[in-house]
């Protein structure tokens, strides 16, 4: 039985749980070549899924991933879907395309993100990191829930969050940092990543895990295109912020293989649905009494971890969910 840790790789995860891949349909957002989304897709492709849907803004950056999947196994249906998570129109069009062409989605991996970028707004007027990293995946997930339910037992939603969620909770009274005048790049990023953890929490309490299980994860620190806005000054600022947080996880850089491992672990591991066969090498935090139902929880280094206190709690998660619905004019009626 594999021992799961910081050094675990995506290849190890898919080898261990290949029965949860074969013949299934996976949707990954933000799978540009050279990132952890692409590495996630390639690991899955090695174990014969039926379909891998690759959703992102730039087909040029994603086509190499499609080509690599075809080289691995030409029987896999690798499909590009145009998706801009900063644009409601694009999200709704992508969801309509997916709902119209596929009868089920077994696993949705909300991987796409932007990090620590200058202040700006989405096409719909939301602070750009909150809008792209949370409201975009929130809307996409809500619109695709019928296809996830259609997959039956074993369906999963995985939100790729970050240890940087510890930088900030949800600023319910000031989501957009006073219209940018009080903007802090890392706090804005932290708020958006906290939101993904709370989203998984809400989904887990409203949808039985036997239907759809939902998780949030920290992939680790990986060198990728996500850091394009991060310069030496920004790194210094993040380092100062992390030093003021007692439980902030500081670790060495991971490879792409290591970086996609926790995503795949949360997407595939039967232990997370209570299967004791696979629980041997997992360690529960002291505040989690059993493996009976782990849906809604947070993982890092292929292990359960406790998120920041501001990323916990049913009341906060419910408040955020309703805020998301209000901002987007939706009622997903879970």
From TrEMBL:
Gene Ontology terms, MF aspect: oxidoreductase activity
InterPro entries: NAD(P)-bd_dom_sf, Sc_DH/Rdtase_CS, SDR_fam
Pfam families listed in its UniProt record: adh_short
Keyword annotations from UniProtKB, A to Z: NADP, Oxidoreductase
Domain of life: Eukaryota
Gene3D superfamilies for this protein: NAD(P)-binding Rossmann-like Domain (3.40.50.720)
Keyword NADP in annotation: yes
Keyword set includes NADP: yes
Family from the record: Belongs to the short-chain dehydrogenases/reductases (SDR) family.
Protein name: Short-chain dehydrogenase
